[in-house]
Write a structure and sequence with these properties.
single chain; alpha+beta; 6-stranded mixed beta sheet; 8 helices; 62% helix; globular
């Protein structure tokens, strides 16, 4: 999935890449929405789309920062048409560590939303309506991104927060089962809404979340079985890691498509790249 990507930057030693699908998607959205308004509208939508995905990259860097502080290695961040994906070797299993990492991305989006809201009002009040509208729109989209990612649709950020909160009571395996079941229910609701409203990308994301929730539960089942047998799962597969291996994790943040071009779905992947 990430083979057609190229690196645009490196932050904290983490390569940030752009997938070709994102470029195609941004051009399509800019032309589709902006064409009736002429070249200025097209340019406005294109720049807005780029800024949205820059915001998503910062969202993923928020997760990555906490992951690094918790001793996890982040392999790369890739920006795709469905959002941002942070690929890391392991996600913390301690409830508090998982909670902190899950909320760090939405926290970044919330701060960006506040900056956009205040900055937009400032420029609107000082005679720069187009710039004010642009910054305010970006702020609103980041607010939406914050709320969308905090929905309890495991393995999105909100679902991961939910699992972290109930793990002390139910244990990691049972908590994952409950969170995954809730995630599947919400994915079905997303899919129905996307189908009715003809937001086909949302239908795709719903299918992706539904599949990922099941994969996450199976992964935790395997980990718990291995732990009970005294088997170090991650160390055993360390030597198999050459490039992208099946036990890497992918954290994906879908963009707010209803608000324009461009929420952390967080995904553990056994047999795909997210």
């Amino acid at each position: 999935m990430f083979n057609s990507s190229f690196k645009i930057a490196t932050v904290w030693g983490i390569p940030i890449k752009v997938h070709i699908s994102l470029i195609v998607w941004l051009l399509f959205i800019a032309l589709y929405i902006g064409l009736p308004g002429g070249p200025t509208a097209i340019l406005f939508m294109l720049i807005l789309g780029v800024c949205i995905f820059a915001s998503i990259a910062l969202h993923e860097l928020g997760h990555s920062f906490v992951a690094i502080r918790k001793g996890c290695r982040v392999r790369e961040i890739t920006l795709l048409f469905i959002g941002g994906a942070a690929k890391m070797e392991e996600i913390p299993t301690r409830p508090m560590d998982e909670f902190q990492m899950a909320v760090s991305g939405p926290a970044v989006s919330l701060v960006l939303g506040a900056i956009g809201y205040l900055g937009g009002r400032y420029f609107l009040l000082h005679g720069f309506p187009l710039l004010g509208l642009f910054i305010a729109s970006l702020g609103k989209i980041n607010f939406f991104l914050t709320g969308f990612n905090l929905l309890p649709a495991f393995p999105m950020d909100g679902g991961r927060v939910f699992r972290a909160l109930i793990t002390p009571k139910f244990g990691r395996l049972r908590a994952t089962f409950i969170a995954a079941r809730l995630g599947k229910i919400m994915a079905v609701l997303f899919g129905i809404y996307g189908f009715i409203s003809q937001h086909w990308i949302l239908v795709f994301i719903a299918f992706f979340i539904y599949t990922a929730a099941g994969n996450e539960y199976r992964m935790v089942q395997f980990q718990e079985a291995a732990r009970q047998q005294g088997f170090n799962f991650w160390s055993t597969f360390q030597e198999r890691r050459n490039g992208y291996s099946n036990d890497d994790k992918v954290m994906i943040s879908p963009p707010p498509f209803e608000s324009g071009p461009g929420s952390e779905t967080t995904i553990h992947s056994m047999d795909d790249d997210g």
